Amino acid sequence: MNKFEQVLIEYLESKHKFAQMVLWNDEKLGLEGSIIIDDTTLGPGLGGTRWCAYPTRTEALVDNSRLARDMTYKLALALGEDSELVKAGVSFGGGKAVLRGEPTQDKGKRKEQLHAYAALVDSIGGRFVTSIDVGTSVDDVITMREVTRWVMGLPQEMGGSGDPSPVTAMGVVWGLKACLEAVYDTASFKDRTIAIQGIAGKVGATLARTLAAEGAIIVGCDIHDAAAQEIAREIGAKLVPPDEIYEQKCDVFSANAFGGVLNDDTIPRLRCRIVAGAANNQLWEPLRHAAMLQERGILHAPEFWINGGGVINVAHEFHPEGYSQERALADVRRIYDRGKEMIEISHKEKMPLYMATIRLAEDRIRRAKAEAKPAN
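The structure assignment produced for this chain is given below.
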């Protein structure tokens, strides 16, 4: 670790004290990464493993720190006191892992890299539980499970919950219903125009198909043109170049690709009443850009509320009675109820929904800390 990286770590920890940070570099395998456990008040840190070719270590570490913080909020909201899982005595805090490098397609090398990384996860002793994210798959989870039990997202035939992407999309649909009711007084998608950024992704494609089946008019874009064309033909969607998606006249702009897409350049170009999608870290500067959206009369659904379906689903693998899709989906449907509650707080107190969401999450964490303190 060079001096600059040490200063960066000290800066990140001064902004928010992490429960634990683990840096890892295996030069022999050509892979490096970090695990950040953000908060363990509610339970072990839970979060996916993102495997990407970040240009620099700095970008990878900053992204990991933001993702880990969002996981804390996401799990505090997604698994509230009314959750079927929490009622059974299981709860999670937030964490995230980032592997820096181009994911290899060489099966032998990939297995060796994943085994080494899984050994690192195992060495933390259950304080961090991981699953699928960008760059990782169900097959990778199966490979990691050969080394550590602290991984989720196994196929259902192995007692797991499977790929979380379709359930993430399902949660976004429930969240969108809450947003539509708040803005248009109806939860119906019929004849609503929805612009989907990342229409060819695992979540974006499922979302597009689901909304089109419910009567929505879909406009989409994706950097993977061939896959986008295939989905567009299937559901009758209109495709536009990626940079033109922001200017589309629509009811909902749904970001389902990478983060930082809502910023000083893109927000003034939006022509919608609702922003709601599954991508993480959508706001380049969260507080300022949340306020900017509110000033423009746009309801913004924070991703750590609306994209919680996938993590709810995998978390249910830790239910004492084993994974049950029925129980998991009952908790996913509560994304709608949570949204109604937060939107009401936002309207009543005239604050961005982003702030109302954070407050609800932090209130739950504060209550848990207070209850954990021994009586005098």
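Interim note for the steering committee: The chain has a mean pLDDT of 93. The chain has 13 helices and eleven strands.
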